[in-house]
Amino acid sequence: MAVLSRVLRLRAAGLDRFVVRSFQSSSSWRNSEIDPKAAAVLPLQRDVKDRNVQWVFLGCPGVGKGTYASKLSTLLGVPHIATGDLVRDELSSKGPLAHQVLRLEEVVNQGKLVSDEIIIDLLSKRLEDSAAKGETGFILDGFPRTIRQAEILEGVTEIDLVINLKLREEALLAKCLGRRICSECGGNYNVATIDIKAEEGNPSMYMAPLLPPPHCASKLISRSDDTEEVVKRRLHIYNEKSQPVEEFYRSRGKLLEFDLPGGIPESWPKLLRALNLEDHDDKQSAAA
User: Fold this and answer.
1) Cα distances (angstroms) measured from residue 162 to each of 93, 183, 250, 258, 274
2) Helix, coil or strand: residue 247
3) Which of 5, 68, 88, 210 is buried most, with the most CB atoms less than 10 Å from its CB?
């Protein structure tokens, strides 16, 4: 990973790419179409000699990339690297990019995309930290967001799978506006109750709030960029930029499009089935 981080910074040409297994199909997958035979080609059953998975999560702001990437990270034993968190940590820590903090904060608060150079610098540093800890593999969350970022990433390493989470826009807006963070422990919660009735061929959708424990309830704060105006702008910018990135991975047969049917209890088991994975801890807790 140290090599990868340096190459990300330099975008060196002509480096040998890591040899990995990828999809055998040239077409993309959609969760509603996956069957057991098709799922068998997903790069999941790995020999111990193989390196860990290198996956990417795509999806609109607020769709739940961090939630599901984090759960898969724990299940598969690989680092979850969220570029949004890297940016927010940089803003609060006065790190190496401190001279750019004011401009960076303005970009974030206006719902705009942070420049490729800043994102790649932060991601490179995070990968160096992972290498120092002996970690291998990763699940990227929030990167790449542009074609240029996707091309840079492809030039230095192989991505096995890109999971594109989808959620109806009205649910996305409600989720973003309901996000809360505990100012003390940093825990993420959501106070929104989403109850959308079935109409015009779309099924109903219910997502219960993710409420904090009592000791966090009085310490909840909202992100400064979680206002309706900023969220709508972020969604508009994302939709503009995301289609070429989705097509980039679709054309390589690496895109799994997954429509979230509801909250975590409904979506997590279906996502695992789409990925040909099992969560034994989740099964045990459900049976308890």
Assistant:
1) 31, 32, 9, 10, 13
2) helix
3) 68
